[in-house]
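Posting this for the archive.
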Amino acid sequence: MAFLSDTLARVKPSPTIAVTTKAAELKAAGRDVIGLGAGEPDFDTPQNIKDAAKRAIDEGRTKYTAVDGIPELKRAICDKFQRENGLTYQPNQITVGTGGKQILYNALMATCNPGDEVIIPAPYWVSYPDMVLLAGGTPVIVTATLENAFKITPAELEAAITPRTKWFIFNSPSNPTGAGYTWDELRALTDVLMRHPHVWVMTDDMYEHLVFDDFEFCTPAQVEPGLYDRTLTCNGVSKSYAMTGWRIGYAGGPVHLIKAMATIQSQSTSNPCSVSQYAALEALTGPQEFLTANKALFQRRRDLVLSMLNATPGIQCPTPEGAFYVYPDIAGCIGKTSAGGAKITDDEAFASALLEETGVAVVFGAAFGLSPNFRISYATSDKALEEACRRIQTFCAGLT
Protein backbone atom coordinates (compact mmCIF):
# COMPACT_ATOMS: atom_id res chain seq x y z
CA MET A 1 0.00 0.00 0.00
CA ALA A 2 1.42 3.37 -1.05
CA PHE A 3 2.04 5.86 1.74
CA LEU A 4 1.48 9.08 -0.23
CA SER A 5 -1.91 10.01 -1.62
CA ASP A 6 -2.71 9.60 -5.31
CA THR A 7 -3.87 13.22 -5.18
CA LEU A 8 -0.25 14.34 -5.30
CA ALA A 9 0.05 12.93 -8.81
CA ARG A 10 -2.56 15.44 -9.99
CA VAL A 11 -0.80 18.59 -8.79
CA LYS A 12 2.62 20.22 -8.83
CA PRO A 13 4.37 22.70 -6.53
CA SER A 14 3.89 26.41 -7.28
CA PRO A 15 6.46 27.49 -9.91
CA THR A 16 6.43 31.09 -8.66
CA ILE A 17 7.37 29.97 -5.15
CA ALA A 18 10.03 27.70 -6.64
CA VAL A 19 11.62 30.60 -8.53
CA THR A 20 11.59 32.83 -5.46
CA THR A 21 13.16 30.04 -3.38
CA LYS A 22 15.87 29.41 -5.99
CA ALA A 23 16.71 33.12 -6.13
CA ALA A 24 16.98 33.25 -2.34
CA GLU A 25 19.28 30.21 -2.32
CA LEU A 26 21.59 31.79 -4.89
CA LYS A 27 21.67 35.05 -2.94
CA ALA A 28 22.56 33.13 0.22
CA ALA A 29 25.41 31.51 -1.69
CA GLY A 30 26.80 34.94 -2.54
CA ARG A 31 25.43 35.38 -6.08
CA ASP A 32 24.30 38.81 -7.29
CA VAL A 33 20.64 37.97 -7.94
CA ILE A 34 17.71 40.23 -8.82
CA GLY A 35 14.48 38.39 -8.05
CA LEU A 36 11.52 39.36 -10.24
CA GLY A 37 9.41 36.33 -9.42
CA ALA A 38 7.56 37.29 -6.24
CA GLY A 39 4.05 38.68 -6.65
CA GLU A 40 4.02 41.05 -3.70
CA PRO A 41 4.57 44.77 -3.16
CA ASP A 42 8.04 45.68 -1.98
CA PHE A 43 6.88 48.37 0.45
CA ASP A 44 5.63 47.94 4.00
CA THR A 45 2.07 47.63 5.25
CA PRO A 46 0.70 51.13 6.03
CA GLN A 47 1.30 52.27 9.60
CA ASN A 48 -2.36 52.70 10.53
CA ILE A 49 -2.99 49.05 9.66
CA LYS A 50 -0.04 47.88 11.73
CA ASP A 51 -1.24 50.04 14.62
CA ALA A 52 -4.69 48.44 14.44
CA ALA A 53 -3.09 45.00 14.71
CA LYS A 54 -1.09 46.11 17.74
CA ARG A 55 -4.24 47.44 19.40
CA ALA A 56 -5.98 44.15 18.76
CA ILE A 57 -3.16 42.32 20.52
CA ASP A 58 -3.15 44.76 23.45
CA GLU A 59 -6.92 44.42 23.80
CA GLY A 60 -6.70 40.63 23.92
CA ARG A 61 -8.37 40.00 20.57
CA THR A 62 -6.30 36.86 20.17
CA LYS A 63 -8.92 34.14 20.67
CA TYR A 64 -10.86 32.04 18.20
CA THR A 65 -13.33 33.97 16.08
CA ALA A 66 -16.29 32.91 13.98
CA VAL A 67 -15.04 30.37 11.42
CA ASP A 68 -15.32 32.67 8.40
CA GLY A 69 -14.78 36.12 9.86
CA ILE A 70 -15.62 38.57 12.63
CA PRO A 71 -18.92 40.48 12.22
CA GLU A 72 -17.20 43.88 12.05
CA LEU A 73 -15.03 42.79 9.14
CA LYS A 74 -17.94 41.22 7.30
CA ARG A 75 -19.88 44.47 7.59
CA ALA A 76 -16.88 46.44 6.33
CA ILE A 77 -16.62 44.10 3.34
CA CYS A 78 -20.33 44.63 2.59
CA ASP A 79 -19.73 48.39 2.68
CA LYS A 80 -16.70 48.03 0.41
CA PHE A 81 -18.62 46.03 -2.19
CA GLN A 82 -21.44 48.59 -2.16
CA ARG A 83 -19.15 51.64 -2.25
CA GLU A 84 -16.69 50.48 -4.88
CA ASN A 85 -18.54 47.91 -6.96
CA GLY A 86 -22.24 48.72 -6.60
CA LEU A 87 -22.87 45.22 -5.22
CA THR A 88 -25.26 44.73 -2.30
CA TYR A 89 -24.39 41.90 0.07
CA GLN A 90 -25.49 41.11 3.61
CA PRO A 91 -23.04 39.77 6.23
CA ASN A 92 -24.39 36.22 5.81
CA GLN A 93 -23.28 36.45 2.16
CA ILE A 94 -19.66 37.20 3.12
CA THR A 95 -16.83 34.80 3.88
CA VAL A 96 -13.32 35.62 5.12
CA GLY A 97 -10.46 33.19 4.62
CA THR A 98 -6.75 32.77 5.13
CA GLY A 99 -5.81 34.61 1.96
CA GLY A 100 -7.50 34.81 -1.42
CA LYS A 101 -6.18 31.36 -2.32
CA GLN A 102 -8.19 29.71 0.46
CA ILE A 103 -11.35 31.49 -0.67
CA LEU A 104 -11.01 30.08 -4.19
CA TYR A 105 -10.04 26.64 -2.88
CA ASN A 106 -12.97 26.49 -0.44
CA ALA A 107 -15.41 27.34 -3.24
CA LEU A 108 -14.02 24.66 -5.54
CA MET A 109 -13.94 22.04 -2.78
CA ALA A 110 -17.53 22.88 -1.84
CA THR A 111 -18.90 22.60 -5.38
CA CYS A 112 -16.81 20.37 -7.68
CA ASN A 113 -17.67 16.74 -8.36
CA PRO A 114 -15.72 14.32 -10.56
CA GLY A 115 -16.26 15.29 -14.19
CA ASP A 116 -17.23 18.89 -13.46
CA GLU A 117 -15.42 21.29 -15.75
CA VAL A 118 -13.93 24.66 -14.81
CA ILE A 119 -13.06 27.11 -17.60
CA ILE A 120 -9.77 28.91 -17.02
CA PRO A 121 -8.41 31.51 -19.46
CA ALA A 122 -4.68 31.19 -20.11
CA PRO A 123 -2.31 32.74 -19.25
CA TYR A 124 -3.57 31.96 -15.75
CA TRP A 125 -2.41 32.25 -12.17
CA VAL A 126 -0.44 29.06 -11.59
CA SER A 127 -2.71 27.76 -8.80
CA TYR A 128 -6.06 27.76 -10.64
CA PRO A 129 -5.72 24.46 -12.52
CA ASP A 130 -4.14 22.63 -9.58
CA MET A 131 -6.85 23.75 -7.18
CA VAL A 132 -9.49 22.50 -9.62
CA LEU A 133 -7.71 19.15 -9.83
CA LEU A 134 -7.44 18.90 -6.05
CA ALA A 135 -11.17 19.50 -5.83
CA GLY A 136 -11.83 16.67 -8.27
CA GLY A 137 -12.77 18.87 -11.21
CA THR A 138 -11.37 19.13 -14.73
CA PRO A 139 -9.64 22.33 -15.88
CA VAL A 140 -10.68 23.49 -19.35
CA ILE A 141 -8.07 25.92 -20.66
CA VAL A 142 -9.02 28.68 -23.10
CA THR A 143 -5.91 30.32 -24.54
CA ALA A 144 -5.81 34.09 -24.92
CA THR A 145 -3.23 35.13 -27.48
CA LEU A 146 -0.80 38.00 -27.70
CA GLU A 147 -2.74 39.25 -30.74
CA ASN A 148 -5.83 39.67 -28.50
CA ALA A 149 -3.79 41.35 -25.74
CA PHE A 150 -4.07 38.18 -23.64
CA LYS A 151 -7.88 38.45 -23.38
CA ILE A 152 -10.31 35.74 -24.48
CA THR A 153 -13.13 36.50 -26.89
CA PRO A 154 -16.84 35.77 -26.38
CA ALA A 155 -16.70 33.14 -29.13
CA GLU A 156 -13.82 31.36 -27.37
CA LEU A 157 -15.73 31.34 -24.08
CA GLU A 158 -18.89 30.06 -25.76
CA ALA A 159 -16.98 27.25 -27.48
CA ALA A 160 -15.54 26.06 -24.15
CA ILE A 161 -18.89 25.71 -22.37
CA THR A 162 -20.38 22.22 -22.16
CA PRO A 163 -23.17 20.66 -20.10
CA ARG A 164 -20.48 19.70 -17.54
CA THR A 165 -19.20 23.27 -17.03
CA LYS A 166 -19.51 24.26 -13.36
CA TRP A 167 -17.41 27.44 -13.11
CA PHE A 168 -15.79 30.14 -15.20
CA ILE A 169 -12.79 31.64 -13.37
CA PHE A 170 -12.29 35.30 -14.30
CA ASN A 171 -9.23 37.34 -13.29
CA SER A 172 -8.94 41.00 -14.30
CA PRO A 173 -6.45 42.63 -14.09
CA SER A 174 -4.64 39.40 -14.66
CA ASN A 175 -1.80 37.62 -13.02
CA PRO A 176 0.49 37.05 -15.01
CA THR A 177 -0.25 39.44 -17.88
CA GLY A 178 -1.77 42.51 -16.22
CA ALA A 179 -4.47 42.44 -18.91
CA GLY A 180 -7.71 44.09 -17.86
CA TYR A 181 -11.14 43.80 -19.47
CA THR A 182 -13.04 47.01 -20.17
CA TRP A 183 -16.74 47.28 -19.33
CA ASP A 184 -17.69 46.56 -22.96
CA GLU A 185 -15.30 43.60 -23.22
CA LEU A 186 -16.66 42.12 -20.00
CA ARG A 187 -20.24 42.78 -21.09
CA ALA A 188 -19.61 40.67 -24.19
CA LEU A 189 -18.46 37.78 -21.96
CA THR A 190 -21.37 38.14 -19.53
CA ASP A 191 -23.79 38.07 -22.47
CA VAL A 192 -22.42 34.60 -23.23
CA LEU A 193 -22.77 33.52 -19.61
CA MET A 194 -26.37 34.69 -19.49
CA ARG A 195 -27.15 32.15 -22.22
CA HIS A 196 -25.81 29.33 -20.03
CA PRO A 197 -27.55 29.50 -16.62
CA HIS A 198 -25.76 26.40 -15.29
CA VAL A 199 -22.36 28.13 -15.38
CA TRP A 200 -21.21 29.93 -12.24
CA VAL A 201 -18.67 32.77 -12.21
CA MET A 202 -15.72 32.94 -9.82
CA THR A 203 -13.98 36.30 -10.00
CA ASP A 204 -10.49 37.03 -8.75
CA ASP A 205 -10.43 40.81 -8.25
CA MET A 206 -7.25 40.93 -6.18
CA TYR A 207 -5.65 43.64 -8.34
CA GLU A 208 -8.74 45.86 -8.44
CA HIS A 209 -6.99 49.01 -7.19
CA LEU A 210 -3.85 48.54 -9.29
CA VAL A 211 -5.05 49.85 -12.66
CA PHE A 212 -3.32 52.40 -14.85
CA ASP A 213 -3.86 55.22 -17.31
CA ASP A 214 -7.60 55.73 -17.86
CA PHE A 215 -8.60 52.08 -17.31
CA GLU A 216 -11.64 51.60 -15.04
CA PHE A 217 -12.02 48.37 -13.10
CA CYS A 218 -15.28 46.42 -13.26
CA THR A 219 -16.40 42.99 -12.06
CA PRO A 220 -18.91 40.55 -13.67
CA ALA A 221 -21.89 40.88 -11.30
CA GLN A 222 -21.51 44.67 -11.50
CA VAL A 223 -21.62 44.62 -15.30
CA GLU A 224 -24.44 42.06 -15.52
CA PRO A 225 -26.72 42.04 -12.43
CA GLY A 226 -28.41 38.95 -13.85
CA LEU A 227 -25.31 36.98 -12.82
CA TYR A 228 -25.49 38.09 -9.18
CA ASP A 229 -27.09 34.87 -7.90
CA ARG A 230 -24.39 32.66 -9.47
CA THR A 231 -21.29 34.76 -8.94
CA LEU A 232 -18.69 34.51 -6.19
CA THR A 233 -16.93 37.89 -6.12
CA CYS A 234 -13.49 37.29 -4.57
CA ASN A 235 -11.00 39.85 -3.33
CA GLY A 236 -8.55 40.50 -0.51
CA VAL A 237 -6.15 42.94 1.10
CA SER A 238 -2.88 41.29 0.03
CA LYS A 239 -1.84 43.29 -3.03
CA SER A 240 -3.42 46.75 -2.79
CA TYR A 241 -2.73 47.15 0.93
CA ALA A 242 0.70 45.46 0.93
CA MET A 243 -0.55 42.76 3.31
CA THR A 244 0.55 39.55 1.59
CA GLY A 245 1.82 37.93 4.78
CA TRP A 246 -1.26 38.84 6.83
CA ARG A 247 -3.27 36.23 4.84
CA ILE A 248 -6.75 37.72 4.52
CA GLY A 249 -9.01 37.12 1.54
CA TYR A 250 -12.77 37.49 1.27
CA ALA A 251 -15.72 36.97 -1.03
CA GLY A 252 -19.40 37.77 -1.46
CA GLY A 253 -21.90 35.32 -2.90
CA PRO A 254 -25.15 33.41 -2.45
CA VAL A 255 -25.90 32.33 1.12
CA HIS A 256 -25.96 28.60 0.41
CA LEU A 257 -22.52 28.73 -1.21
CA ILE A 258 -21.07 30.86 1.59
CA LYS A 259 -22.38 28.35 4.16
CA ALA A 260 -20.88 25.44 2.23
CA MET A 261 -17.51 27.22 2.08
CA ALA A 262 -17.66 27.82 5.85
CA THR A 263 -18.19 24.09 6.36
CA ILE A 264 -15.03 23.33 4.38
CA GLN A 265 -13.08 25.96 6.31
CA SER A 266 -14.37 24.72 9.66
CA GLN A 267 -12.65 21.38 9.07
CA SER A 268 -9.42 22.77 7.61
CA THR A 269 -8.02 25.99 9.09
CA SER A 270 -11.00 27.30 11.09
CA ASN A 271 -10.89 31.08 11.47
CA PRO A 272 -8.32 33.34 9.83
CA CYS A 273 -5.83 34.92 12.24
CA SER A 274 -7.81 37.17 14.60
CA VAL A 275 -5.17 39.91 14.62
CA SER A 276 -5.01 39.92 10.82
CA GLN A 277 -8.77 40.32 10.67
CA TYR A 278 -8.63 43.50 12.75
CA ALA A 279 -5.80 44.76 10.56
CA ALA A 280 -7.95 44.08 7.47
CA LEU A 281 -10.83 45.92 9.10
CA GLU A 282 -8.62 49.00 9.39
CA ALA A 283 -7.40 48.54 5.83
CA LEU A 284 -10.96 48.66 4.45
CA THR A 285 -12.29 51.41 6.72
CA GLY A 286 -9.21 53.59 7.29
CA PRO A 287 -7.48 56.14 5.02
CA GLN A 288 -7.32 55.12 1.37
CA GLU A 289 -5.20 57.94 -0.05
CA PHE A 290 -2.04 55.84 -0.24
CA LEU A 291 -3.70 53.63 -2.88
CA THR A 292 -3.43 56.48 -5.39
CA ALA A 293 0.23 57.09 -4.58
CA ASN A 294 1.08 53.39 -4.83
CA LYS A 295 -0.75 53.10 -8.15
CA ALA A 296 1.32 55.96 -9.59
CA LEU A 297 4.50 54.27 -8.36
CA PHE A 298 3.60 50.99 -10.03
CA GLN A 299 2.62 52.73 -13.27
CA ARG A 300 6.01 54.43 -13.42
CA ARG A 301 7.72 51.08 -12.92
CA ARG A 302 5.54 49.47 -15.58
CA ASP A 303 6.51 52.13 -18.08
CA LEU A 304 10.21 51.75 -17.24
CA VAL A 305 10.13 47.98 -17.75
CA LEU A 306 8.06 48.22 -20.94
CA SER A 307 10.38 50.76 -22.53
CA MET A 308 13.47 48.64 -21.86
CA LEU A 309 11.96 45.26 -22.78
CA ASN A 310 10.47 46.51 -26.04
CA ALA A 311 13.91 47.83 -26.98
CA THR A 312 15.34 44.32 -26.49
CA PRO A 313 16.00 42.05 -29.51
CA GLY A 314 13.65 39.07 -29.69
CA ILE A 315 11.15 40.43 -27.14
CA GLN A 316 7.66 41.83 -27.66
CA CYS A 317 5.68 43.07 -24.66
CA PRO A 318 2.16 44.56 -24.74
CA THR A 319 1.12 47.27 -22.29
CA PRO A 320 -0.84 45.83 -19.34
CA GLU A 321 -3.84 47.67 -17.91
CA GLY A 322 -3.09 46.77 -14.29
CA ALA A 323 -1.53 44.54 -11.60
CA PHE A 324 2.27 44.67 -11.33
CA TYR A 325 3.36 42.20 -13.99
CA VAL A 326 4.44 42.16 -17.60
CA TYR A 327 4.37 39.04 -19.75
CA PRO A 328 6.80 39.47 -22.65
CA ASP A 329 6.72 37.21 -25.69
CA ILE A 330 10.14 35.73 -26.54
CA ALA A 331 9.36 33.93 -29.79
CA GLY A 332 12.30 35.77 -31.33
CA CYS A 333 14.69 34.12 -28.86
CA ILE A 334 13.63 30.50 -29.24
CA GLY A 335 16.03 28.23 -31.09
CA LYS A 336 19.07 30.34 -30.36
CA THR A 337 22.10 29.76 -28.12
CA SER A 338 23.12 32.00 -25.21
CA ALA A 339 26.56 33.50 -24.75
CA GLY A 340 27.09 30.89 -22.05
CA GLY A 341 26.28 28.04 -24.44
CA ALA A 342 22.72 27.26 -23.31
CA LYS A 343 20.25 26.13 -25.97
CA ILE A 344 17.06 28.22 -25.74
CA THR A 345 14.61 25.48 -26.66
CA ASP A 346 11.65 26.98 -24.78
CA ASP A 347 10.79 29.62 -22.20
CA GLU A 348 11.86 27.42 -19.30
CA ALA A 349 15.32 27.08 -20.85
CA PHE A 350 15.36 30.86 -21.39
CA ALA A 351 14.53 31.58 -17.74
CA SER A 352 17.07 29.02 -16.50
CA ALA A 353 19.89 30.42 -18.65
CA LEU A 354 18.95 33.98 -17.74
CA LEU A 355 19.24 33.18 -14.05
CA GLU A 356 22.49 31.24 -14.35
CA GLU A 357 24.22 33.72 -16.66
CA THR A 358 22.89 37.08 -15.44
CA GLY A 359 21.39 36.51 -11.98
CA VAL A 360 17.92 37.70 -13.04
CA ALA A 361 15.12 35.46 -11.75
CA VAL A 362 11.86 35.41 -13.75
CA VAL A 363 9.06 32.83 -14.04
CA PHE A 364 8.83 30.95 -17.35
CA GLY A 365 5.60 31.17 -19.32
CA ALA A 366 4.72 27.47 -19.43
CA ALA A 367 3.92 27.73 -15.71
CA PHE A 368 1.07 30.10 -16.64
CA GLY A 369 -0.20 28.07 -19.56
CA LEU A 370 1.14 30.12 -22.47
CA SER A 371 4.55 29.96 -24.16
CA PRO A 372 7.00 31.26 -25.21
CA ASN A 373 6.83 33.99 -22.58
CA PHE A 374 8.07 34.86 -19.13
CA ARG A 375 6.63 36.90 -16.27
CA ILE A 376 8.30 39.81 -14.56
CA SER A 377 6.96 41.22 -11.31
CA TYR A 378 7.91 44.89 -11.21
CA ALA A 379 7.03 45.17 -7.53
CA THR A 380 10.58 46.12 -6.67
CA SER A 381 12.77 49.21 -6.79
CA ASP A 382 13.35 51.28 -9.92
CA LYS A 383 17.09 50.70 -9.52
CA ALA A 384 16.70 46.92 -9.42
CA LEU A 385 14.29 46.93 -12.34
CA GLU A 386 16.57 49.05 -14.50
CA GLU A 387 19.56 46.84 -13.77
CA ALA A 388 17.54 43.65 -14.36
CA CYS A 389 16.25 44.91 -17.70
CA ARG A 390 19.77 45.96 -18.70
CA ARG A 391 20.97 42.41 -17.98
CA ILE A 392 18.06 40.96 -19.99
CA GLN A 393 18.98 43.24 -22.90
CA THR A 394 22.59 42.06 -22.74
CA PHE A 395 21.52 38.42 -22.51
CA CYS A 396 19.21 38.67 -25.51
CA ALA A 397 21.75 40.62 -27.55
CA GLY A 398 24.18 37.76 -26.97
CA LEU A 399 21.87 35.09 -28.41
CA THR A 400 23.05 33.61 -31.69
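Residues 289-309 form the longest helix (21 residues). The CA atoms of residues 315 and 330 lie 5 Å apart.
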